[in-house]
Amino acid sequence: MEVVIVIIVCGIVLYFMFGNQTEKKYKKGLAALQSNDLDLAEQLFQGISEKHSDAKTKLDEITFKRGELAEKAGQLEKAYEFFSAIQKNNPDAAKKLIEIDFTRGVSAKKDGDLNTAYNYFSKIATKSSEAFFEASKIDFKRGVAAELSKNYSLAKDFYLKSSTYKKDAKVHYGSVCRKLICDLKIDSLPAEKETSEIISSSVDAKLKNDFIYRYAVKLIKKENFKYASEFIAKKLDRNLPEAENLESFILNFKKSQLRKTIEAINDLLFKSESKANTTEQLYNKIEEQKNIIEDFPQYSTTIFEIQKNLFSKLLHQYISEQQFEKCLDHIISYPNFFDSIELLKDAGICCIRMATNGKITESNYKNVISIWLTAIYNDDIFINSLENTSWDDDYTFTIKNAVGKFGSFIYKRDWANINREEPSESNIAIGDSQRELINLFENALNSIQPESLHNKVYSFYADEKKAISDLVDLLGYDTLHTTPEFAKTFNTSDTILKHANWRYETKANQELLMVGSKYFTLRFNDKGGVIYSSTDMFDKFACAKHYSDMAIERIKKGTQVSPDVYKEVLNWFDKIKYSFENEVLVIFNSKIKINDSDTQLITIMEQVFNIIPHSEKLGYLFADYTTSYCIDKINSKSITEIKALELLIKAISICPDNHKTAKNLAIFIGMHLSDDSFSQKLKSLITSLQKIESESLYDSFQSELLPLRNELNSLLRKPNINYSRVREGINLIDELINTVEPQDDEEANDNLPF
Amino acid sequence: MKNPYDVLGVSLNATKDEIQKAFVKAQIENVKTKKHDGKELMEARNQLMIPSKRLVADFLFPSKLKSKRPKPIEINDLEINGKVDVNSLNDDALDSLKYSLNYV
């Protein structure tokens, strides 16, 4: 106890001796600091830095004062060192560092040392807006220097950097403008958005005019005179003589180009024999110079008239030189060529000649077939061609049985020798000629090689032909008949659909919807689902047809078809529902021929039946196939009796009139009634039999199960028998027969109100 | 596929009589020239004698275009006063690069 007291007393004595001394030193240090005796202050604070909590702060204060003194004395390096040492804990020191860097940057800039200046400014650009501004100005100057040495790519980089300083419009827009000028110098036309942005900006007029002038020259060099003229007139300072010079250049240039074109035209017109090649060159030249020619109305009418003649001339030269592919391209390049009977006919000629010359390829068959069918199904092209010869003047021609059902143009003119009477020796059937040409085309398609292309072409041809034939049958003469491919390629679908819609409104014939849907282009959402309007019947029909096709594809591939997806859509239209039914029956029948016990097929058939539960044929097929399947699988012991029982009950509930299923179900029950688990399962399934009204099943149960019941009854009279099991069997048979016993019709009718 | 009009050497407007005569003449000449086989001549004749077939021939082998030759275009007022070579245009006519040296 005494020892502890001695230690405490010593501690207190020592604290008063030394603790007091630290405080004394601290106070001395403060006094030295106040009198700017920094060395003494530093010495004193350092001595107590570990003992006094404020000593370190005072040491930082001394370093800051030293920095300030060095800065005042112009010793920036030294000042920088002092401030750097304490910048972490002293925000004022950090500010001082930025100020020093900025001062050093300004000084280097004054000395013309832009690199050093840039280094100082860019170092603090994110912290000091002034430094950012100075760095951007240096970037601009470096850009100018690079541009002077024709290093435009480097110059663009500098201008891009300097343009990031947006506080100063002069630097920002000046940089953007010079960057665009550099683009033009490296032969790249700046984007329209950038161009209009700089033109509408407050950029310096000299820079702006330089840019606009160069831009106009670039447009001229690219022979975009129309835009160049507009650009000069609207954008370039009209007081500048250069504006007038450029306009005068454009006018002279256009005149010279026009001169050359006219000379070439005159030259060709005087040639007695010209080839398609020459005509083509001239035709294209006029096409290229179209914008220039349009500016000289005193010549344009004549030249464009000649171009029209050249179009026809070229077309016939192509045909006589047998260049049918080129000819077809030439025709379809003419806007809405199909509005001209002559052009449609010539296009048809090209197509059939390409086919008979073996020129159908993977890349052109769709075009050739669709144009051919569109041409041949328009009777007018024949009627019109009668005008070109005189041998036919002695005959009359009938459009009765013509393939196009009189076409679209026929009522627009009076045709003296056309009628709708029966054909005779002097009344020639146009339809016969059309059919002969169709045969000729089809024979040509038949000889296409290789077989893969032939199959593709023929299937496409069959679809297109069916579509246009149906269209002709349903729409008659009031529109241009085209194939679906033609309609989609040349945008004629709307007209066809409009006419089909009119007809549908009066006739409500779903055939029209079926045909029209082929001309419809489906719209899909992001997830691949079809977008349709429930009020637009063609839209809705096309959507349903799409789903029907999709389901058929899945069935063909043996993939499951979820009834949830298809059930509603496929039942919108009877036409689709029944055509779907027919197609699936064909598919299932062919699959059954290949494999008579396919488990997956049973699943798919059941799914399809759920989509079209009205289909008696499908129900019958399902029951028949399932019954055979069960017999086969039970005989080969590949499925359990319980599974077979479930399938057979499902089959009879889908098709109650299937005698084969009813008979086999009855036999099957009779065979396995003594089996405990079987009879238990059967009891649980009796409720599903209640819904079935099937005379076949009732008859089968009676013929197959009553003898068994009698047998069981006789067992009851014999000794050593499990009477309760036998009674259970008898009861089950009674229940089965009672469940499927047909209702008395008369009784049922008694309940009806009338 | 040959043009029956060319095979028999008749015009698109030939009458039945003219076709028949041309056919006979072509057969006689063909004995010497062997230019066509007999079947070819017969097919050409049949094609032109049966009107519905002749329509097919007219479709496949259309007549050449008979159009009026347009008159040459007179050049009256296209005098050129100045250069027309685009390369003669001075891109630097309003050059502002030197001005930009002291821009900022």
Strand and helix layout:
The complex is a heterodimer of chains A (754) and B (104).
Chain A: H1 2-34, H2 38-47, H3 55-72, H4 76-86, H5 91-110, H6 114-124, H7 129-148, H8 152-162, H9 169-185, H10 192-199, H11 205-221, H12 225-235, H13 241-270, H14 276-288, H15 290-294, H16 297-320, H17 324-332, H18 341-356, H19 365-376, H20 380-385, E1 396-398, E2 418-419, E3 427-429, H21 430-446, H22 451-475, H23 484-489, H24 493-507, H25 510-517, E4 523-524, E5 530-531, H26 537-557, H27 563-570, H28 574-594, H29 599-611, H30 616-635, H31 641-654, H32 659-672, H33 676-690, H34 695-715, H35 723-740, H36 745-750
Parallel strand pairs in A: 1-2, 1-3
Antiparallel strand pairs in A: 4-5
Helix pairs in contact in A: 1-2, 2-3, 3-4, 4-5, 5-6, 6-7, 7-8, 7-9, 8-9, 9-11, 11-12, 11-13, 12-13, 13-14, 14-16, 16-17, 17-18, 18-19, 19-22, 22-25, 24-25, 25-26, 26-28, 27-29, 28-30, 29-30, 30-31, 30-32, 31-32, 31-33, 32-34, 33-35, 34-35
Chain B: H1 4-8, H2 16-33, H3 38-49, H4 51-60, H5 97-101
